[in-house]
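agent: user wants the full assembly modeled, not chains individually. Plan: 1) parse entity lines 2) check alphabet per entity 3) run joint structure prediction 4) return tokens. Steps 1-2 passed, two entities, 1629 residues total. Proceeding.
--- entities ---
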Amino acid sequence: MIKSWRNYEALHQEVASSLLQASESTSTTLPLTDELATWLAQLSLLYGVPVEYMVADARLLPTESMRFFYVDRNWTNRLIDGAISVGVLSSMEKVFNEAFFERIYAQVNEKQVQLRAILRSTNNGGQVVDGTLTGLLFRSQVVSGWPGLEVNASAKGTALDLLRMDRLSDNTLLCLFNGIPDTVDFIEPGEGLHFGINREADADTFNIYLRGLGFPKDGAYPAGEQIKDPDIPGGYLQASSSLRGGTEKGVVAITDLVSSLESKFPSGALENGTLTPGGFAVQMVQGAGFQQYVFGENYPICEAE
Amino acid sequence: MSEVTKMPVWPGPCVLVPMTTDILLIGQPDFNSQTTWSGTKNNYYNLWMQQLPDSPQAFNQTKCPPVGAHVMWTLPYTLRKGSQQASQQDNAEVDFPFIPNRWLITRFQYGQPGVAPTVVARILQSDLLFDLGNNPNAYNQYPYPSDTAYPVRGIGQNINLDGWAGVAGPSGYFLQAAGPGDLAWSVGYDNIKNVLSLHDDLSADAAVYTYSIIGWYADPANDLLYSIPTENNDDWQQSLSSTYGWTLGDGQDEVTQAVDTWLAWQRDHGLQGPWDPAGINLPPQAKAAIVAWYNWQQQYGVNTQEAALPRQTICHSMVATVNWQGNQTAYGTGVPGGGLKYPKISLGNNSIESISTYMAHMVAENKGITDKTIINSIERVLEAFQKDLIFDLDKDPVKVEMLLHNSRFESEYSGQEWMVVRPENSVQEPTETAGQQSIPLNQEETDALTALNTLQDQLNDNLAQVQSLRSELFMLSIKSSYMGRKTPSAIVTAVNQSINEIKSQLSDRLQQYQELSQAVESQSAALQTLIGSTYLVKAVDRLPYSVPRDPVIMVAGVEQDSKLLEPSAAQENGELFVRITGQTVSGINVSYTLDGVSITETIGAAELLAAVNFPVWNAIPKEVMDIWVETLILDTGNATLIALLYFNKRGVSYTPADLSTLAHQIQIQQSAIWNPAEKIGVPTQTLGEVAGFNGLIPAAVGVSFRKGQPWTPIYMDWQVSWFPTSSDETKQLTDWKLGDIDYAWQGTAIPAPPNKLIFQGRAILNARVAKNIQGKFASFESDPNYAFLPQYMQQSLALVASRIGELDVLTQAMSGFTRQLTTQLMAMNRYPDDPEITALLTDTSVNYRPVTGSDSQPDPLPFFPIRSGHFQVIDLWVVDSFGQVLRGKDPQLGPESPIPTIYWSESIDTHSPEYSGKDASKYGQLPPRLAQAAQANINFLQRDNDNIPTNSSDLTNPICGWVMANHLDNSLMVFDENGENLGSVMKVQREVTDFSNALTQQYTIRWEAVPGSNTALGAPPELPNSHLQQFILGLLQTGLTQDADAYSDLLSAIDATLWHMSNFNNQNGNMALLLGRPLAVIRAEVALTVAGTPLYNQSWVSTGAYYNRDGTYDPVDPPYMGALFNVRVGDSFFDGNGVLGYFQDDIYHTFYAVYGNRGQTYAAAGMPAKAGGNRNTLSVLASAADAPGFKTDYVQADHVIALPANGAHAKLTLLVDPSGTVPLIPGSLPSSTLALPNGPVTRALNNIKTTFRAGPLLLDPRKIKMPTPAQVQGNWGWCARKDVTGWNPEVAIAPYSPVATLQDNAVKLIEGWITLSGPTTNSN
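--- prediction returned ---
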């Protein structure tokens, strides 16, 4: 006796068609668990990808070099394919992957932009913009010398989400952006006080702009503000000085510098006409370093996928 | 005469066991009416004379019993219960206890209210045998083999008590509940007249009667309780409960109380200390009786000093309010509905099926369902529920169906096999607890175990042969006794020659049996010595033989009677309440208010015995007077007398109204105690105390107040018309096809045989199954798990549960039907006279009567050793113990027309895709079955030696090797039995020169030896196992002619099956998860065998036809043994299935894909693992109406293995997922499964090392590093060619570090093989 308790003959067909239907439905149910999507998102942000696969030869990224790049979605999708193909025991899993791959990619993409926020335990994840990911590889002493280096990318004035920023080694930095930036700013770490001078390379002389110290009391030269040059419209007063000679290079001649500074201050701007050590420190404060890269208009913009 | 002829009486206490009595009243009008009566009498005289009828035939009609009261009692269950001797064999004798052979029947006749009843008493000498004289048919008979001249006697005698001499005997005690050749002997009225029943020819005048029945053993030594331990209360009580199923009550110290009561009784009756009748303070009649009793005991009785714990039994019963209205009254019938209604009937292959079918229709009617498929599914739910499979029904319906199918067979012992197991207290963890143990024996031990099993096989076969030969010899001896002067000489010669041959064969076999048994014993002992104490050598039962069950008929609305059931089936605690001497009811407290004064008086023995005269007695149990007094006190018909005695005792005058009021009040007291204790929540004894009774109230079964005619259905007579699939015994499988689990009929019409084939039989009804079902449903709603069942299941079950209390059904198999198809009749038989034959037959109980036909008939009788076809139920009778008949069919329908309305269970319902006959509902359908015990077996064989079946030694394991489909490489990796990688079959692109070819033809397959081996490129594989080698060579061969299509077919076949296997546990670590499932290549064989010799047609002309060669025993198989049955190995729809397919009979160019696999996923299997762009393929897969099938002949679907039942083996090389089992689905026999031996599987899986091609990869050639899965801690290696012929040594793959080294020595593009071995994981 044949008992058709289930239509077994058509079981494969039923599974396939129900997967197909589910994949085409407008249901908001996500195909992957959150954990899995997060893992795949990390993978698509190249976590765990050997550096050799990105820079096949060290000569492609010599020291003190920076390479901007697009992330090829084809490439990362194949990476996801590879990862989810590991569990394929039979064509049933293949059918699942085939039916749901677009939704899987979409879910992973969504996760990509939230990943950094998740890893940093902040709430403000970004949004998928146009799906184009870009990035840069930066191999330089700067990476090791300025551990807190900040990288900000923006397009047409709008900041782009930073999806990943990782040191791949002491001197190699990888950044991935959500979108195509037209400007990328590198900023020295903003925290703390910097003292120093600016000079041309190999020059023995330098200039320092003068800052007010809150004297005279009428507020003519507020503390910390640069003092305008009454003679040059839009200009500021500055004092020149030089480095010390001798075998030790790059040492500031402090006494000369103090004298030069004192001489340049307008009258009344110094307490008792003398530059105190505190006043000297104010003169020597340096703002954070800032380097901007702007893509030229003729820079070739690639279309991803 | 001397003392030995006098019956001794028992001085110690007795257990008083209540039993049920029925009384059938027959008046002259009843006698004259046309009511149908059926006889229940065994005619042992006819049996001896070889005349018919010798046993009560089905549908026999007899005369109504004579006018008067027919008193028949039912022995307590314990006395009717047989126990089988402990034996290896299923057909061992069943022993029954002796039953009481002296019965005292006392009749109390009531006349005017208040007048003391007249008491008469009769004694039955139940086992008195008397000469039948010239009129044997006038009496109920009993065989008496010691008189060879006239070996039949009449049995049972009744005489007045006062005329009875207290005779003892007989010396050879024989009386049991089961009569000779008849288990239902003690409940068939016609057999037990004056044995366990009495015809009381009442006077013509009306009167109300009460009967008391008291039974005991004439010889105390034969008493059921005689050997109960009496050393202490606990042992006695324990034995009473466990051995006899009796209890003295639920209290803590009921035994102590009972003993105290007995000692007090003994003292009161002067039986303690020196005998001093003057000191006995009892009512005169009681005193006279005990004095008379004492005197008898002194003269004839047992004079031993008995313990205070009883070891004797007294059965007792009373029936009151027997309202005899004279002999000219019609008392009617006890048949339900007055015999004018017909019961509902359903049929199934077993009791549960037939009852479930009935209940499914009940549910359907209730819900207005008419769709047959829904009714069938409800039936299935109910069946699964009763078999405790309800939770599997939704998850694994195939398993449920297999088990339900298996329950349509009975099992028969098939012998043993030997295993070596770890002892239970072993410190080593056993790899498996039962079945195919896996033990690492060495070669010598393995050889010894194999030899032992070979010997045991011979012994098993010998045992089966002995049984067949005995059966044949028995039938031959009956044939021989049938022969007369007119028997043709050819037949005489054939019978005599056959007898001599079988005798000689049997004698040889029995001799051989002894030798084999001894050899097995000594060899098993030797093996145990050889392996020492680490392991145990153990014999376990083999898979049993199976015999198809006869269809089971269920009749509903038969008003079943529970008195024949064991107490546990009727009441919850399962034990029958009994009392001991002295505990009987001795008085009733009566209160009445007269003139405003209420006074309570106890009316007991003193008052009653002053009023009622009892016969004088001495040679009967001392307890009789107590039971008589109890009868008077409990009898509602005696209430007026009790009331009268009250007023007399109180010494007041009263009006008739007072008398009537008080009598009514006493009747209420008497009735109150019979309220069912479990319903009102008050124990019976408490009720008794409240109602004012002194003493313990007997169990309700022992006291009845007659309300109408009795009805105790015991027999079912069935008659069917058989429509065999073919009249040719070899063509019974025509039009049948092996379906999912069982054979399915494909016929277009039900073929009618040339002559009508009518079979009939009488079977004993069974109320127990229905009771068990009721019990099971009672607990249904209390189990919270049922809430998880699908809604329709819950609803069906709940509805049945709510109505189960009303279920009034009895079931019975059409016992002997299948036997009748093979010219054998289940009947009482005369045992052969020839001492040589009886010595050879010993106590075998497989005794069927040959159906020979006439000796002048030239052609054999129709013979259906393969039961296959259709049947109609022509008639049905339910016969009660008095012979009353409930008809199953309106007689006006005519004798040959089938019963019109029958509920057929799904398994027996007639249907075929080709048949739409409107009469289908009148036919039951029986798929092909061998009518004799048979077996479908699948056995594993040692991988390299087909002559050694796999046993518990790992050295005999059946694993030829392993293959694994590598999805990453599109290759089939091949491993040896230990998991060593041997290479792989790869699909490769062939050099294309002709671009006009289709794309697929651009591929081929080639053998790729394992990376690192020194095999020359392109060399064929050289695999260590020949089956594995043949398999791979056969596969590679297809590459020459069929490109890669055959290979793709094979992978597709594997793939489609794996869809079902996704729910298996991890095979081993995460190997399967990473790469695929290793599949074992297994060697096995299947065979269909019958137990012993084939069945032979018992017609005269066929005698010895298949073994007698003119006096020489030369057996050949009858032609039907060549009929081919289909069996299936593997079923992809069964959850536990591990089979993916197989090669048969060493033919390796055709792979048979497992059942259910038709290449459904061919399209999907061809898809690359990467996603994208295959949506069309997906749509094709999802919408394909039919499976596209396989492209080549290499893989074939829907294969079944055709096997004759003669034991011919089909050798198989199977592909098996080791986490599943190998199911065998024979259809005509039960399904079974076989699991791979654990040890070799685990070893290989731990050892398995996979390789897959990788590249080109950017790697540092000096140190191979790559990311490996974090959760899998396997050994990853890298294997690469050095040049065209040489290999670099394999190196371990270092875990990748995510640090960007960006060294100047650049990575290179490298190709090679990644290897993975021993993957394990700490967490899943």
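agent: reporting back. The helical segments of chain A are 11-24, 34-44, 51-54, 73-85, 91-119, 141-145, 254-264, 277-284. Chain A touches chain B through 50 residues (CB under 8 Å).
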